Amino acid sequence: MNLKERFMRRLEGKDVDMTPVGCTTTYGIVELMRKCGAERPAADTDPETMAALAIAGHTIAGFEWVKAMGWDIVPVSEVLGCTLGKPTIDHPYHIEEHPLADSLDGLAYPEGLFEKGRFPAFEEQFRILKDKLGDEVAVFGESEGPWTAACNLVGTETFMKWTMKSPDQVAKVLEVTAAVVIDVINWAFDQGADYYCIAEPSSSPALMSPKFWQKLVQPMLTDVVKKAKGPVVLHICANTDKLIPFMCQTGVAGISIEEKADLKAAVQVAHQYGVKVFGNVATATTLFMGSPEDCYQEAIKSLENGTDFLTPGCGVAPNAPLENVLQLVKARNAF
């Protein structure tokens, strides 16, 4: 079987010959950019450069599937009106201002959504990737989810306060952000995406309790996943141990978790729901600051704990050594 067949069979719960290795979040690694000549800021805006970096993740870093839609998780927030800070080679686009911090008067579904922001560039990047990779390597799209987009529009602290004091305001914002995210996901599938990753860092247990996650985030994401044209993977940062059942109950095909979560336990719970697990070599510590041997051993541990897809636990830090990242495929091959 080729790499795409192996990836999709594993995501569908079918037998494969070995565990796929890759990254289901972002991998805007400076050393990788320089090796392939695809550096920020062009790697965030120019389709050819974006595609070159995506493919370099496969040909140089050893990842067995590739990412479309740039190297940050703010494209939805951008078209909804958030001001972005300019990227540098070691820092992606990021939220600089929250346009709805003082009033929801500007809240609206964007007209001509896919003509705005970087979506025209993303469309061309998808075309290039599909032309060059064909049916050999899986391609995925990624963006922030509705909850994180809402926090970006309003400000995380304010939005979290609204969950207690102004639930009607929360619902009003989520109605728009969820509608946009659903359309973005399905647009990505129309461009040829094989699956889609929703990143919801602003819904992590570091910011809200599992009780509120189940009440506010789970129903919204369940509706998003139900309306998606293809398989969805959900990534949430921090220690998600208490969220794992709720994440799986949204109907996603896979969950992506950090090293702070108990991978072995997560696999046991997720498999009861027919959900696959992506993870979870530490990005902020091991891959960024550890030795190649540290990375190799942690990758082996993830495999021993039953990960379905061997990946970094989150987006790879821009200044992580490429040699550290290469230990993932080395460990899989040895395992």
UniProtKB/TrEMBL annotation:
Source species, domain of life: Bacteria
EC number of this enzyme: 2.1.1.-
A GO BP annotation: porphyrin-containing compound biosynthetic process
Coiled coil: none
InterPro entries assigned: Methanogen_methyltrans, Mtase_MtaA_CmuA, UROD/MetE-like_sf, Uroporphyrinogen_deCOase
Cofactor: Zn(2+)
Domain Uroporphyrinogen decarboxylase (URO-D): 4-334
One of the Pfam families matching this protein, by short name: URO-D
Example GO molecular function: metal ion binding
Keywords, ordered alphabetically: Metal-binding, Methanogenesis, Methyltransferase, Transferase, Zinc
PANTHER family, alphabetized: METHYLCOBAMIDE:COM METHYLTRANSFERASE MTBA
UniProt cross-references to NCBIfam families, sorted A to Z: mtaA_cmuA (TIGR01463), PRK06252.1 (NF004889)
The protein's name in its UniProt record: MtaA/CmuA family methyltransferase
Source lineage: Bacteria, Pseudomonadati, Acidobacteriota, Candidatus Polarisedimenticolia, Candidatus Polarisedimenticolales
